Structure formats: C-alpha cells, structure tokens
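User: I'm preparing a small set of examples for a lab meeting where we compare how different chains pack in three dimensions. I only have the primary sequence for this one, and I'd like the structure in token form so I can line it up with the others. Please keep the answer compact; I'll paste it straight into my notes.
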Amino acid sequence: MKQILFLLAPLCLLLSGCAGYTLGGQKPAHLRNITKIAVPTFENLTLEPRLGVLVTNAVIKQLQNHGGYQVVSKAEAEAVLEGKIQNIDRTQFRSDRNNILRSSQIQAVLGTSFQIKDLSSGAVLHNGVASGDSQIILDANLQLSETQLLEHAAQRLAYELADQICEGW
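Assistant: Understood. Below is the structure token output for the 169-residue chain.
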C-alpha cells in the first residue's frame, strides 16, 4: 500500500500543476500572428524638441523587455507600430510654502495615439491610446529637471503601450 502511495503522489503533483497556466506573454488574439514589428519614430505634434525620439526609444526598450515581439527594420517586419505624441500637459503639483505662484514640484502627462498596421495587407490591426505621467521636484537647473520629468513620463507611457499590445488578458 505504501508503495502505491509513493508512486501516486508524484503522479498527482505532475497532473495537477499548471492548471491552464502557460509561461510567457499572452498576446491579444488579433495580434497573435505578429512576431516581428517595426517601430518608426513617433510623430511629435507638440512643440517639445526631440520628444519623438525619446518616446520611440522608450517604447522599443519596453517591447524588448516584454519579449512578445522582435523589433526589426521595416523591410523585415510583419507589422508596423505608428504613433503620434498628441500632447504634454504640465501642471503645478506643489507650490513653494512662501509663494503659492512659485512651483516646487511639477507634473507632466504625455498622451499618444498609436496603431499597428499589417504590412502585407495594409489593414489596421490595432488602434490605441496611451499616456504616462510623472512628477519631479524642481532643481536649480530647470532644464535638467524638465528633461528628467519627460524621460520618466515617456517610460511610463511606453510601459502602458507595451502592456496593451503584449498582454491580451
């Protein structure tokens, strides 16, 4: 009897494990056949210089981290991810204690729209919007603070965008 229990115990563990779970990402059903994607520079509709490149680089890094797609050139790709940076909303997050008109911390929200097009047929496979926000305490070097603020907002935007197209549940 003990010998049967010793044989059945590992068998039960093997059969009951991973009840429906699989390793790796689960792409949305309409994107499951896409493995190689091209990401050209996002179109920048704001007045902020070099923001298109900043957001594009963040999106590419995040897509590579997710691992659902291989980022390649347009000549090798099955689909292309095209995006437009729609707006940057900057607001005062905290003010100086002695002067409420002087900001001590600011918040920025980046907003984008994007679509994934199949290169063979030209059909739009996915439309979406993504946004990323960030707050930063202003330093004496305002330009550096602004750059760091936009970099962090771009990273958060890229995380949301990659999450939408890499996770289908």
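A couple of notes for your slides: The CA atoms of residues 36 and 78 lie 6 Å apart. The domain at 27-166 is CATH 3.30.160.150 (Double Stranded RNA Binding Domain).

User: Perfect, thanks.
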